[in-house]
Amino acid sequence: MTDHLDSIRRSFDFLEEKILEEAPDLLVFGGDYWDAQDRIDAQALFVGHEQLERVSLLVDKKLAIVGNHDYWSIEHGIFSISFLRSLGWTVIDKPEVIEFQSTRILCLPYRDEYDLDELKQLIRSAKSGSDSLCIAHSDVRGGLYRKPRSDKD
User: Fold this and answer.
1) Based on CB atoms within 10 Å of each CB, which residue in 5, 29, 39, 118 is the most buried?
2) Is 0.85 topped by the overall pTM?
3) Pairing of strands 103-108, 96-100
């Protein structure tokens, strides 16, 4: 277990080092803060929370896109969404376009399904600015953003 906890700390040490080197204007978290499938090790959860709290102090603007495990973790008593909010993160839990500096950011958190008309409207809105960016939480196939054409898709 010590190796696992050290791995968590090393990951956050690396993140802290990069934040201090690069001084980003915005820190983006792409979802799945915690993978709570069967059970949670309380010690690992504590260390993860402690480390996230530490690096959260380094950047003023923080954006978190909700992932599928962030929703599922609630069933196991892990409230990562509210924890992120308590640390000053802007948590995106529904599709929306936000403005950051001169960039319009299309944020697409995890969803079982998207309303395609709503998605098209959001894309048009995001493209209306001079610069645009899309941040999404999806699987490799992008299956959450399209309807399957057949049972094989």
Assistant:
1) 29
2) no
3) antiparallel
